[in-house]
């Protein structure tokens, strides 16, 4: 069974760009490295050759992974979503009830989750706790350091 991979249009574009780069830039560069290392002679003790082959293996594996995710992509157009109930694509503003710190998270697919960019996976404990909730609600999330409580102060679609 091929499960669909939910993602935003931006996430799909980013994966497509990475795939194109790996196929048109990285692949030819690695092939060149292999050919150059091969010209140095004995392959059994040629560290450059083995490093280039390993890099090729890694790159080809990532290309296959990207092709699979793109083939199974279920692109969700966030611009068509609205409402005050949190679901995939929502950008949620939370206040940590212990520290009063504000955090803004967009709920996205696993392949585009990036905490540094404020994107959390739909499968993360925080996102799972938020799904179906509305502004003004308090959610409790089991974090590695224990339970954390957050108040939902805003739900946006952007």
From TrEMBL:
Keywords: DNA-binding, Elongation factor, Protein biosynthesis, Transcription, Transcription regulation. GO terms for biological process: DNA-templated transcription elongation; regulation of DNA-templated transcription elongation. GO terms for molecular function: DNA binding; RNA polymerase binding; translation elongation factor activity. InterPro entries: GreA/GreB_C_sf, TF_GreA/GreB_CS, Tscrpt_elong_fac_GreA, Tscrpt_elong_fac_GreA/B, Tscrpt_elong_fac_GreA/B_C, Tscrpt_elong_fac_GreA/B_fam, Tscrpt_elong_fac_GreA/B_N, Tscrpt_elong_fac_GreA/B_N_sf. It holds the Pfam family GreA_GreB. PANTHER family: TRANSCRIPTION ELONGATION FACTOR GREA (PTHR30437:SF4). Belongs to the GreA/GreB family. HAMAP family: GreA_GreB. This is Transcription elongation factor GreA.
